[in-house]
Design brief:
Layout: H1 2-58, H2 68-83
Length: 84
Amino acid sequence: VYGVCRVHRVTEFKEFTMFALLILNSITLLALLILLVYLIISIKKAYKNLVELNQVWRFLPPEEKITKKEESKSKEELEDRWMK
C-alpha cells in the first residue's frame, strides 16, 4: 500500500511540474510576442519619421542644403588653412 501511495504522489508532482512549466512557457511566449509587436511598431514609427524628414529635406531652400561639391570644397579649404 505504501509503495502505491508513493508512486501516486510522485506522479502528481510530475503532473504539477509539467503544468507549471506549461504555464511558464505560455507566459514567456506571450511576453516575446508582445516584444515583437512593440519592435514592429517602433520600426514603423521610425520609418515614418525618416520619410517625413526626407520630405522636409527636399523642400528646403537650396542655400540651406550642402551638396557634395561644397562639402569637398570646405574640406579642401580646411586643409589649406591647416597647411598654412
